[in-house]
Specification:
The protein is α/β, with parallel strands linked by helices and 293 residues long. It contains 10 helices and 12 strands.
Length: 293
């Protein structure tokens, strides 16, 4: 149709049955309603209504128009609701980004959401770079460290990620475990291949052991965990991740100075979107296991 206004007018006339009623709903003069109906009938080459003293009754062609225009009106309403964040339908894409090492927390949460909402498409990206939420690079970011300060973002605390020093049983049997900080230098370590890392445990270790004590370095969280499990050396892991892996020995227990605060970050324009709110609630519930006793 060349004019949605004319179709919408005809739909309201068919639905209400009178020109005056349609004019009131549409907020236009009754003469505008009549003009729209006449123009649409001329364009279609068919009578859409039977005129009578009590109002307008749709013809067979008018009934067909009522079906099509009604469906279009509903779709426009759903589109408007999705744009303004008031739709109750949970569907579309959800893009979540986080630091590495949170898959034990996030993957079950995201899979659980999809099980309840099959129309939800998930993209989870673990990357050290900061995704620009204002440019739509991600819908939710989980960041570590000090509270994020970007303008137009809504920041909420998620949990504190505790970290401990772990060893494989084979390493502990062959080399023993450190008896304290003064005993660290005689051990081998698995560490991050990033001298600029802001991870508190990384800085703590660098200040206490020589550089060549870190004999296995990697920039991949999964590789780091596997190297520790394989006995390459002692290494730091989040408590939640180590417990999920199983079979590791705690060489040094968690310390407050190794812990990292995690933050949920969303852009103000999308914060109230139903799928964003659904994820935020679910991940907050799951985060109760983030700092296990």
């Amino acid at each position: 149709m060349e004019s949605w206004d004319e179709v919408r007018t005809a739909y309201q006339v068919a639905r209400i049955g009178t020109v005056s009623g349609a004019a009131e709903v549409l907020g236009v003069h009754h003469a505008t309603v009549i003009r729209h109906i006449d123009a649409l009938e001329a364009r279609l080459g068919a009578k859409l209504f039977q005129r009578h003293p009590r109002g307008y009754t749709p013809t067979e062609a008018g009934q067909e128009l009522l079906k099509v225009a009604g469906a279009a009106e509903e779709q426009f309403a759903q589109l408007s609701a999705r744009i303004t964040g008031t739709s109750t339908e949970i569907s579309g894409e959800l893009v979540v980004t986080s630091i590495a090492g949170l898959s034990e927390l996030l993957t079950p949460t995201l899979v659980g959401l999809q099980a309840g909402h099959p129309g939800l498409r998930v993209r989870y990206v673990s990357d050290p770079r900061l995704f620009r939420l204002e440019y739509g690079e991600a819908h939710v970011a989980i960041r570590a460290g000090s509270r994020p300060q970007e303008p137009d973002n809504i920041v909420q605390p998620l949990c504190t990620r505790r970290v401990a020093l772990y060893a494989a049983p084979a390493y502990a049997e062959a080399h023993g475990l450190p008896e304290g900080e003064g005993d660290l230098a005689r051990h081998r370590f698995v560490g991050l291949d990033d001298p600029e890392s802001r991870a508190p445990f990384h800085r703590w270790l660098a200040a206490r052991v020589p550089d060549d004590a870190i004999t296995f370095r990697t920039n991949e969280a999964l590789v780091l965990a596997e190297a520790i499990r394989s006995g390459a050396g002692l290494g730091f892991l989040p408590v939640l991740q180590a417990r999920a892996m199983g079979g590791l020995v705690e060489a040094l227990p968690p310390r407050p100075e190794w812990a990292t605060a995690l933050w949920l970050v969303t852009h103000v324009d999308l914060h109230r979107s139903p799928r964003i709110q659904l994820f935020l609630k679910a991940v907050k519930d799951a985060a109760r296991t983030c700092d296990p006793d």
